[in-house]
Known about the structure:
Blueprint: H1 2-7, H2 16-46, H3 51-71, H4 92-137, H5 141-168, H6 172-201, H7 206-231, H8 246-259, H9 269-287, H10 294-323, H11 327-365, H12 370-381, H13 384-410, H14 415-444, H15 449-480, H16 513-538, H17 546-565, H18 574-599, H19 607-629, H20 635-670, E1 684-688, E2 699-703, H21 707-721
Antiparallel strand pairs: 1-2
Amino acid sequence: QITTLINHKDKPKRSDKTLQAIQRVGQAVNLAVGRFVTVGEAIANENHELKEEMSVACIEARRAGETIAQLTDVASLDHPESDSHITIFTDKTGVVKAARLLLSSVTKVLVLADRIVIKQIITSRNKVLATMEQLEKVSSFQEFVQIFSQFGNEMVEFAHLTGDRQNDLKDEKKKARMAASRAVLEKCTMMLLTASKTCLRHPDCESARINKDGVFHRMRLALEQVIEIVTDSRSNGENEMAPISIYSGIKEFKNKVEGLRENLYFLSKENLSTMLEVILEHTEDFTDSAYTSHEHREHILELSKQAKMELEQLVSVWMQAQNQKTKDLMEDLEVAILKTCQCMNELKREVHSAATSLAADLLKYHTDHMVLKALKITGVEGNLEAVAEYTCKLSEQKEQLVEMCRLLRHVSGTEPLEITCIHAEDTFQVTGPQIISAAETLALHPSSKIAKENLEVFCEAWESQLSDMSLLLREINDVFEGRRGEKRVYLSLPRPGKHNANLKALKPVKLDTEEQAKIAKLGLELHLLTSDVDSETEKWEDQENEIVQHGQGMSSMAYSMYLFTRGEGLLKTTQDLFHQAEIFATEGTKLASALHALSDQVHDDDKPLLLLEAEKLISMCKQLQVTAKASAQGKSATFTKVDACILKTRNVMTLLCQLLPLCCKLLRKNKTGNGCLKPAPPWKEDRIRTGTNARTPERRVETFGIKSLENHITNMTFLESK
């Protein structure tokens, strides 16, 4: 809005419509500033140490907003130039000054508010650490129950604060690190509960103490990492830079090589040679690995040798071109650049194949969890010799999985996925020994229900990480094959542009920059709706439910259509978009059929409402299909059709946001004891109110599922009373 005011053209003739528009913009800015400042002042009143600074910044912002409103108060003026009243037309520099003051003061308020948020997170972390110290020292069940109840509440508060912070982070690398740390805290909270209970039940057991100490140590490290991310610092001044991956090394190397087309002198041949040496050193992680196949090893060694030769040829031509820039030499240089880049691409493809094929084989081999099952059985039997045998097998499995994570990191393709691989490696490294100590404790105390429960918790963490690795492997493959936008597209859906023979005859059309700008707001609304639908589907216990499946599919397709409005994603042309809209409508019709099936299961009182919503959905999907199939000739007509398809898709998604909670509510009502909603999904995105202003949009935060902890506390109280 401010940019609109600053950039408006001073025309000799100004219509009433123009004057009214300018006044509306000025008033809108002033109102927005007023709402913003009200929140800032409320924050100032709650935080006395920053009250003075915050109040000054708020006063400046309010003053600037009022100035802008005064300067744009032009609608009632017939002849602004002859009037003594100063307006945007007589004093444009005044608007510029007010805008600068406004942006400066708003930035100051945001920075101060950010400092307060950081302080809140640090304070919350300190509370958690203090309570953890108390938990380590307790010697009775009763005392432990009381303190753990307090600890659970403090962890919930910490989860809310860090969840908000994670959502606010712009740096994808930091966001991934924060997610990894919070995942550790979520899993370790349950581990801490069972490990502490086991230690209290068997105070003289060394393996139980080792098991508990490992959990406390890991939680402290995770808490410290969260604070490092929040404060953008490193403890003891250390520089925690992960070693460069082969993918990122090849990408940087190719950029330098291709840069020679523009400038022959911007780097030295030594720099280029050093970069290649570093990449080839990293390929030794593959060639030296006992788990790399002989075929992959030979291909990697062969391509490494070829890369050195191609670079030597490139450097030779490059040096000649620096001395004598002839046409023939420049053509030779172009050939050398292409051959070098092609060789690096082949090397990248080979290491990707080696890493992902190993991962696929290992995950398939370990999917039955035979070693974990054997440890549970032999532990309950008290068979120490058999437990020792299976712990050796688990250690071997751990080494395989750790090596898999290291190799996958090299080919992950993005920094967030690299961090996820590092987190997975750490999880296997730590959880393996913890399972072993838990199994040894159970073998020493085979009749202990608490020791058995403790082993179950650690085994579940291992199985969960293996499951996460399957998803991670799929994401890495998506990146490599160019299928990944900002959000994963469901692979089971028909791909846009395929399955339709008629598309070949149509001329592909893309939206230009101006058209993208026009449709941006509608696209953003669609994006927000996909987030809402995803939030609703995540709340269902039964993720295999037909309604959930269709809802997730529709959300994924709607997200692809949103990316199209930004000129991104898999939908490259308007025909891709129209085809996607048809598939989206078909998926919506299938969802309506599922709703009809559900109506047969619900009570008569609820049936009419559900059928009414299903009919609405069918009608909307039919309208969308008609629009998507209608012919459009010419640029203007095509854009109108695009706009209509996005609008109708948005309407369907709006209805879907209402349908999903309704269906879940009806299922829960009609299937008592088999509810479809989780009581509180652990660290999943949830919705809470974010202030006293009723108009404030809801924000997403993640929270702990504390219900399960409360159940454990209830059980502990019962045990203590016994």
